[in-house]
Amino acid sequence: MGILLTIPGQGTLSDWEVEITPIRAQGAGGQNVNKVSSAVHLRFDIRRSSLPRPCKDRLLALNDQRISKDGVVVIKAQRFRSQEQNRADALERLEALIRSAARPAPRRRPTRPTAGARRRRLEEKVRRGRTKALRGPVKTDPADG
Fold first, then answer.
1. Which domain holds residue 23?
2. What are 113's strand-pairing partners?
3. Which pLDDT tens digit goes with each residue over 39-68?
4. Per DSSP, what are the bridge partners of residue 14?
């Protein structure tokens, strides 16, 4: 059991936590693509991992299409022609995903509109109201008959 990834502040991921399977790459590419399994599927079960609980919770809460309902991250890497490069690419993408969930989002400080912004908003509302008031049916003078 070796260390596969080291994520600063979150610890390390061992090779038993990440399942990497070679698959055939899709798309055009001729004879090589049809015969050689150069693409890789990376599977990472968030719930079974050794990541800290808050990081797991943030990962599971992400709205990312790579994370299944069961909490498994599936990354398909097929950018490169070599399986080793695709394996490294998949691991980098997993690390980037974990890093994005590692830091909690900063707390939002509620703000208020400035006095000038409130004044301008109300002036614009009055101006729009006047414009719309002019849009009614045209009233004819009864003397014109």
1. 3-102
2. none
3. 888 898 888 888 888 888 888 888 888 888
4. 3
